[in-house]
Write a structure and sequence with these properties.
alpha/beta; 13 helices
Length: 338
């Protein structure tokens, strides 16, 4: 992210205590930690770490274990993804058992809300708890074989399209009506409804783009009230001697695009262009290596409970038990009940 020397900017640091969901105390119990973190962290932001001119504007507790410091910032502007990987920052996080989200906003609004007009989400292990392809494998008793390929793909150890085709070949013969059973067993991630409700009430366009499958993505779109859904389409075959029922043929439909990492980024960019939204006002959440390109292209891209490689390479990362924590990153302080 870059800006001209004439622009003003605000750097917002949101500190998340790793124990925030297990701590039984009150908001006041975190006040001393909150007040200490802003000034203490400021001491780390030397010219060697952050070559910009920073001024601590405020520091406040948002909720138990979640607090925020706001800085005004002058050129030269820093790259937040580089700052969050700096050795002194990672040491600070480890010492205080924290994770920090760094968000640099140019020409910030006075209300301190993160400017967001388009939000794009991954589906599997992000908006839902499961990996749908692993659930398909479970239906015919080959979970281990498929899950092993899934894990390698999501951690970036094998090219995504290749891994998808390998897994689909193993799934040939799954009943074509399996989706109705999956809709009964798949669970929406904790806090997803609250997060989507919050951003939709702000008028944000919402999208799910998944390397999974269209029947589940369209179902999730209806469940959460999303605006758009993109996912892979599978070939269905008629009954045969081997399979006396309609079944999944083990291949992708040639009539639809394959949802690769590049396609996910394309969805972000084309949807933003269609709605005249600058990429600086986009928000992306995902967990797999196939999300890295769109995470890196967004105004704010956060890897949520991500695989190890993704946590290292994503612009920002956060772990927790409820997606509603992300409401605080966007400037909200209510509706966190997930």
């Amino acid at each position: 992210m870059s800006a001209s020397d004439g622009e003003n900017a605000r750097l917002i640091l949101t500190f998340f205590a790793k124990a925030r969901h297990t701590y039984g105390g009150s908001k006041e119990d975190f006040k001393s930690q909150s007040l200490a973190c802003g000034p203490t962290f400021s001491q780390l932001l030397t010219p060697q770490v952050a070559p910009a001119l920073l001024n601590l504007e405020s520091s406040q507790t948002l909720a138990p274990g979640i607090f925020q410091s706001v800085y005004t910032i002058s050129p030269p502007f820093l790259k937040t993804e580089k700052l969050r990987r700096h050795a002194s920052v990672t040491a600070f996080e480890a010492l205080h058992s924290l994770e920090i989200i760094f968000d640099l906003i140019f020409n910030p609004p006075p209300d301190r809300l993160r400017p967001v007009r388009l939000a794009v989400f991954d589906m599997d292990s992000t908006l839902i708890n499961e990996e749908v392809i692993d659930e398909l494998a479970r239906s015919i008793g080959i979970t281990s074989a498929v899950s092993a390929i899934t894990a390698r793909a999501m951690n970036g150890e094998i090219e995504f399209e290749q891994s998808l085709r390998e897994r689909l070949r193993l799934l040939k013969g799954v009943r074509a009506d399996v989706w109705e059973e999956l809709k009964k067993s798949v669970t929406i991630a904790t806090g997803a409804k609250e997060l989507i409700k919050y951003i939709r009430e702000r008028g944000v366009i919402t999208v799910v783009v998944s390397g999974g499958f269209a029947p589940m993505a369209l179902w999730l779109k209806e469940q959460l009230g999303l605006d758009h859904a993109f996912a892979n389409h599978l070939v269905t075959a008629p009954p045969s001697d081997a399979y006396p029922y309609p079944y999944l043929a083990g291949d992708l439909s040639p009539e639809h695009p394959i949802v690769t990492p590049e396609y996910k980024r394309q969805v972000l960019e084309s949807t933003a262009k269609e709605h005249s939204v600058p990429l600086s006002e986009t928000f992306v959440v995902g967990d797999g290596s196939n999300d890295l390109l769109m995470l890196g292209s967004a105004g704010l891209g956060i890897a949520w409970r991500a695989k190890e490689r993704v946590q290292r390479e994503a612009p920002q990362r956060l772990n927790g038990s409820t997606l509603s924590d992300l409401i605080f990153v966007l400037g909200g302080q209510e509706m966190r009940h997930g």
